Amino acid sequence: MEIVQEVLSSEDRAHNLPEETKCKPLMLWAKGILQEDSSIGEEAEIKTVCGRMLRGIITEENPRFVHDFGDYVPEIMYIGPQAKSILWGDDNE
């Protein structure tokens, strides 16, 4: 299960943060094994892989990883050959 928990309210956040960050609460998302019968949207306790017990609102059952490295950046394609050219000369492109 995945839970979400408010760690700091917007009023308790550091004053030197950018305004668009400071006005939002600091949230924690954690995955673990559900310790009690609960449904999505309800508050429940989970046990994480490292043994921490956390309480929060259940957001997802059996969550999957959905991150990536973003869109392709064509300029990166030239970094390797350019570095080789700088380090070892043009004949090693």
Automatic annotation (TrEMBL):
InterPro entries: OrtA
Pfam assignment, any one: OrtA
Highest taxon of source: Bacteria
Protein name in UniProt: Uncharacterized protein
Upper classification of the organism: Bacteria, Bacillati, Bacillota, Clostridia, Eubacteriales
